[in-house]
Amino acid sequence: MKYVMKSGMLYDGDQKKALARVKREFAGSERKILSADGAPVLRTEIRRPDNPAGTSGSTGNGVRSVEYILEDMAGCVCAAAQPDYAEGEEPERTGWPPYRMPKVDHAHLRMDGREYNLAMKGGAGYLLSELSGKEVLRILHRGITGGWDIDAADKLRPETICGLFVFCRYMERENEIVIV
């Protein structure tokens, strides 16, 4: 199915009907996903588990110690993603760059008992695919007109699509330059 995301609102492909929306909290990484009638359905956040698996030494403070969570309003986790560094940017291989963080370009995602790859495609798109390579979700920036074109598998609910969109934005934020 085809959708358009503009200003936090997910519309059908014709942009005639709002299907869901992302509501940002005043501060922090939490986002609420609301249904078409405005009822809260899901929420996202960035968590830092106490003992992240596979991290040690200086990489323990890196992106691998982060987890993106999508949960329903009862607190049941619907999807979780662990971002990872781009090839050639792994700090354990190349060291920490002196003036920036290593680039993040993909995440390992678990949803509905299945595993997926969420990958940045250039500077203006994202692709969620099954481990077999089958495409499940494609998000492309619309350029100067603004917004995002989204092509999703029929099995994905509009609220879930909003949550996955937020995961993409979280991953993009990992690459922002930190100014102190």
How would you characterize this protein structure?
The chain is built from two helices and twelve strands. It is mostly beta strands. It has a twelve-stranded antiparallel β-barrel with strand order 1-2-3-4-5-6-7-8-9-10-11-12. The radius of gyration is 16 Å and the shape is globular. Helix content is 12%, strand content 43%.
Quick overview of this protein structure:
It is built from two helices and twelve strands.
First-last Cα distance: 42 Å
* Uncertain residue ranges: 51-59
Main sheet summary: 12 strands, antiparallel, barrel
Strand content: 35-45%
Helical/strand content category: mainly beta
User: With helices defined by DSSP (H or I, 4 residues minimum), what is the helix count?
Assistant: 2
Report helical residue fraction.
Answer: 10-25%
Side by side, the strands of the main sheet go 1-2-3-4-5-6-7-8-9-10-11-12
Total strands:
12
Tell me the overall shape: globular
Which oligomeric form is depicted?
A: single chain
The whole-number mean of residue pLDDT values reads 88
Keywords:
180 residues; mainly beta; twelve-stranded antiparallel β-barrel
Strands, helices and their partners?
Elements: E1 2-6, E2 9-12, E3 18-24, E4 31-35, E5 40-47, E6 67-72, E7 77-85, H1 91-94, E8 104-111, E9 114-120, E10 125-130, E11 135-141, E12 148-152, H2 158-174
